[in-house]
Amino acid sequence: MELIFEISKPGRRGYRLPELDVERVCVEEHIPAQYLRKDLNLPELDELQVVRHFTKLSQMNYAIDTTMVPLGSCSMKYNPRINEELAGIKEFQEVHPLTDESCIQGTLRLAYELKELLKELGGFAEVSLQPAAGAHGELLGLLLVRAYHLDKGNTQKKKVLIPDSAHGTNPASAALCGFDVITVKSDKHGELDWEDFLSKLDHRTACLMITNPNTLGIFERRIERIVQKLHELDALLYMDGANFNAVVGLAKPGDWGVDVMHFNLHKTFSTPHGGGGPGSGPVGVSERLRDYLPVPQIDYDGERYFLNWDIPKSVGKLLAFYGHFGVWLRALAYILSYGNEIKKVSEFSVLNARYLKRLLEGVFKDDYPDVPCMHEFVLSARNLLKHGVNAMDVAKRLLDYGYYAPTVYFPLIVKEALMIEPTEAENLDTLRDFAEALKKIVQEAKDNPSLLKEAPYTTPVRRIKEAEANRKPKLRWK
Ligand SMILES: Cc1ncc(COP(=O)(O)O)c(C=O)c1O
Questions:
Q1: Ligand 1: which of 165, 263, 264, 271 to mutate, judged by most atoms within 8 Å of the beta carbon?
Q2: Residue 33 pLDDT more than 90?
Q3: Candidate ranges 39-43, 97-101, 283-287; pick with highest mean pLDDT
């Protein structure tokens, strides 16, 4: 397809402003000549061309509105339109962040109510809504852990223990906060290896950073014992709550003894994760960490909602303003629309994942066949290597079958990983069709492996050099 610049024709216009009937302000008088652009080099098109161009572009993409997006670890579920409508309300969109609190009581109230709901769902003493994404929440969580230990004079606490199944952002966030990252092995059930954990836990441990359910989609059953061991040494438990979709409404991490957890609002509570758009990673804390939360906190004194800057031991501010209100609004609407039934989200996401895993039994390798999965599961395409086919080839071929591909090659501890998360949003027919597509692909791998090596055939762009596209992106035309 041609670029918009390539279909441009000099002089074409979509809309012409009427002639000015007031005196023209001469910009040249106000702006120094060197700052005045002579040619903006904008494409010149009529309106219909523009509409068609962008509509065609949108049709070249995969989206949750057109197909299943089974990206493990991303919870790419349908985002109900009603939430979009609410987030689009002009009065919310146009609030200026410096507006006086007395004029935005409604806005602050919604934020406060979301905070209270997250406290309730997570079982936490307090929540900060500020972080702009999951990884940003990790950064805040670890800053809180550091502030807690420094405040107590625990200057020797430099180690952060992280399981080898963790998301890459976990060790990155810990390193960014100046901690030493110590990897803990996983055991044959996909859970934290108990002996390895105990051998690495000591008085220098600041915290353990664990994901539950973890990135294998497996629930860490010893979570309460883990907390106990940590607390005996005044070490804390950070839980990466990116997989909260599997437990929301069923269990409260705060009740397990978790000291700090980030929520990925843009997964569990409806804003899609994959678009690179704004996210939100609120952080919930136990009493231990409450005093260090960032300023300002959104509070209520019984009469008015206000931004509370009076937190003397606060780690400071994380964002220029307060957080991503549009994402908060979607999350609030999503939670309220389920109300007391919110556990249906996790029940159905787990049921869907277990059903799909069952449908795929024997199709790929499964390193944890006897462990029930939670909201996602990880299989391995190792069984296809003997045909010269790998996980990437399977993922690429799925695009020809009209599906977005699952997450591949993560978590790192599973070779040729295919990480599949159907979410609660998909119905049984879609799951069966998806499983059928994968079975056909495995058959193709056996009968005609070269077919898979060249896939995809039906996408506007075929295989790209992904590493190069990241390292040397070409973001401009010419
Ligand atoms: C387990 C886990 N932790 C952390 C993150 C980071 O979240 P974000 O992408 O919002 O920064 C992700 C993202 O997918 C994740 O899956």
A1: 264
A2: no
A3: 283-287
Q: Which domains does the chain have, with CATH numbers?
A: 1-59 (no CATH), 95-340 (3.40.640.10), 343-471 (3.90.1150.10)
Question: Would the pTM count as exceeding 0.90?
Answer: yes
Query: Are 259 and 285 a contacting pair, CB within 8 Å?
Result: yes
Residue 97: is the preceding peptide bond cis (ω within 30°)? no
CA 411–ligand 1 middle distance (angstroms): 12
Q: Is 279 in the pocket of ligand 1 (CB under 6 A)?
A: yes
Q: How far is the CA of 256 from the centre of ligand 1 (A)?
A: 21
* Residue of the CA atom closest to atom 7 of ligand 1: 134
240 CA distance to ligand 1 middle (Å): 8
HSE (side-chain half, CA atoms, 13 Å) at 444: 21
Q: Residue 316 belongs to what H/E stretch?
A: none
Backbone angles phi, psi at 285, to 5 degrees: -135, 155
From residue 422, alpha-carbon distances to 68, 72, 246, 381, 432 in Å are: 8, 8, 12, 18, 11
